[in-house]
Amino acid sequence: MNNKNKRIEVVSFDVEGTIVTTDFSYAIWFEMIPQRFALRHGLEFDQAMLKVRQAYESVGDQRLEWYDVQYWFTRFDLGRADIAMEELQPRVKYFPETAEVLKTLGKGYKLNVASGSPRHFLKHLLRDIEHNFSSVYSSISDFQQVKTADFYADMCCKLGVEPRQVVHVGDNLHFDYTEPASIGINAFHLDREGKTDNPAALRDLTQIIDLLGSL
Ligand SMILES: [Mg+2]
Q: Residue 178 C-alpha to ligand 1 middle, in angstroms?
């Protein structure tokens, strides 16, 4: 790790699909909520899933309620979401290289989280790795928006750094690459499964270590 490279101060990470798999979120939206809905309303799982999906779609991802698990628990009369989410903690899974990459980069840079997930998700998703990060931002919970250029600009202000002093990596081409790159952040798109034909996309997080040496 090049400790003398002072140009980059902060290495910033998206969370779901980047350092943590989507297993936990999937289990909440498509297993736990429809299972409990089925029990509560005396339906088969498939019927419950259909009703739950229709309700999700009726709200849509442009409204803040869509991201709020307690909103859905209240709407479906399912009780307390926080207790139910705690039960799913074992479903949080990190990618194989996550721990080692955070440990290595933490020796030379401040590590930051820039996530589109709400804080009541991050509480679970980051539980075992939060000690690696000096700052955590949720665009939805802290700025009531998705990860726009404005979100990244506000985040840099709060971090007290210029965008050019930040490296950000994430798996969403638009929210983790196009938006941060548009304000001058050194953004990298993580494409674990090679779904895009962007030759510059990273295949796993270890590549960030080499890239930082060359910036
Ligand atoms: Mg992501």
A: 14
1 CA from centroid of ligand 1 (Å): 26
Enumerate domains of the chain plus CATH numbers.
10-21+93-214 (3.40.50.1000), 23-90 (no CATH)
pLDDT classification of 64: cutoffs 50, 70, 90 = confident
Average pLDDT over residues 145-151: 94
Q: How would you class 99 by CB atoms within 10 Å of its CB: exposed for 0-12, middle for 13-18, buried for 19 or more?
A: middle
**Separation of 176 CA from ligand 1 center, angstroms?**
8
Q: What region does 17 belong to: left with phi over 0, alpha with psi -120 to 50, or beta?
A: left
Does position 124 have pLDDT exceeding 80, yes or no? yes
- Mean pLDDT over all residues of the chain? 94
**C-alpha of residue 9 to centroid of ligand 1, in Å:** 22
Distance 209 CA to ligand 1 centre (A): 19
Ligand 1: centre distance to CA 111 (Å): 17
- CA 194 vs. chain centroid, Å, equals 19
Contacts of 140 (CB under 8 A, 6+ apart): 64, 67, 116, 117, 118, 146
